[in-house]
Specification:
It contains ten helices and twelve strands. The chain is of the alpha/beta class and 330 residues long. The strands form three sheets. A seven-stranded mixed sheet has the order 3-2-1-4-9-6-10. Helix 1 (12-26) links the parallel strand 1 (2-6) and strand 2 (34-39). The radius of gyration is 19 Å and the shape is globular. InterPro entries: Nucleotide-diphossugar_trans (IPR029044). Keywords: Transferase.
């Protein structure tokens, strides 16, 4: 298996390094897997400290420069990264891992069983998931299913960790697939087609579209899939406050911590780790909350890129007939 991550100037630097370090320290027989960190769009240079730590952690760095009109999309870098690595490695499987993830122990369930091509976990229902025809989000799922020549009722059902039954909608923070399916290339193509055809009608439908397209590509390619348990991708974040419970994460091997390493939630994260994962707290506590590397020039360059990409996104929204208007901070 090859692990793929993104790294760009800014917050992705400390997050990616911390994620890989957790893999190297606590990943058991997965600890020495090849990790390729991809920088797939324009960004200020990574810091010297980041390059030094990447070398220490055995992370290979790949720079690619795709010609993509949708570089403004928050998660287009992920699709470009997975497609770029897929054409460069020979391992049987490829795993995408978000940078806001920690390995708490040897991960369970991340190996593809015989006859299975794709594994991932269901998200919470979120702001765009659909529970069926009476759900206000269902028209969006009808348009999305039409992207691959289906109707919404053709899509399988998934059971979320918080007890919802939703249409086929994966969490895109962690998934594994067989490289020979060329899923990465096809996922990137479907990502672009979704935007080309203006399937979304709201900002949130654009923002979270990578998770929607992930499932659509699985269905379009006819891949044999299997759902991972929550313990292999457990969400810990401000918008799911009930998950800050040590008992709930005792059996968790992979923690998707989202915003939990920000200063306001740092102590809550550490307290949640105490009962079942004291060794993780012992490692994390001296490191402190994640912080963007300080560099005035890099900060100015990132702000310039953010403004340019934001302007391009607003143009796309205007052409699609809507503006950014949503409230959940997710």
């Amino acid at each position: 298996m090859t692990i793929v991550v993104c790294i760009e100037s800014g917050m992705l630097e400390p997050l990616t390094l911390r994620m890989v370090e957790s893999l190297r320290r606590f990943g058991g027989r997965f600890a020495n897997l090849e990790v390729i960190a991809v920088t797939p769009r324009s960004t200020p240079v990574l810091t010297r400290e980041t390059h030094r730590r990447m070398e220490e952690l055995g992370i290979k760095h790949l720079r690619v420069f795709p010609d993509n009109p949708y570089v403004w999309h928050h998660y287009m870098n992920k699709a470009e990264a997975i497609a770029a690595v897929e054409s460069r490695v020979t391992t049987e499987a490829i795993a995408w891992i978000d940078s806001d993830i920690l390995f708490l122990r040897e991960p369970n369930g991340l190996e593809l069983p015989p006859g299975v091509d794709f594994i991932a976990s269901a998200p919470d229902a979120g702001v765009i998931g659909s529970g069926g025809v009476t759900d206000p989000n269902d028209p969006f799922w009808e348009r999305s299913a039409a992207l691959i020549g289906r109707v919404a009722d053709d899509l399988p059902w998934l059971q979320t960790g918080d007890g919802h039954r939703i249409r086929f909608y994966w969490n895109a923070g962690l998934y594994v697939y067989r490289r020979n399916t060329r899923f990465g290339r096809e996922f990137l193509a479907d990502f672009k087609t979704f935007l080309d055809r203006q399937v979304a009608r709201t900002h949130s439908q654009v923002h979270f579209m990578d998770q929607v397209v992930l499932g659509l590509t699985v269905i379009r390619l006819g891949l044999a899939w299997q759902a991972l348990p929550d313990s292999s991708n457990f969400p810990l974040c401000s918008y799911l406050p009930g998950n800050y419970d040590g008992a709930k994460i005792t059996g968790v091997s992979v923690l998707h911590f989202h915003d939990s390493m920000e200063p306001k939630l740092w102590n809550k994260l550490l307290e949640t780790l105490v009962p079942g994962h004291p060794q993780i707290r012992e490692w994390l506590e001296p490191l402190g909350p994640v912080a963007v590397p300080s560099s005035l020039l890099s900060s100015l360059a990132r702000e310039g890129l953010r403004m340019v990409r934001g302007a391009r996104r607003r143009v796309y929204y205007a052409r699609s007939g809507f503006i950014k208007a949503w409230s959940p901070a997710r």
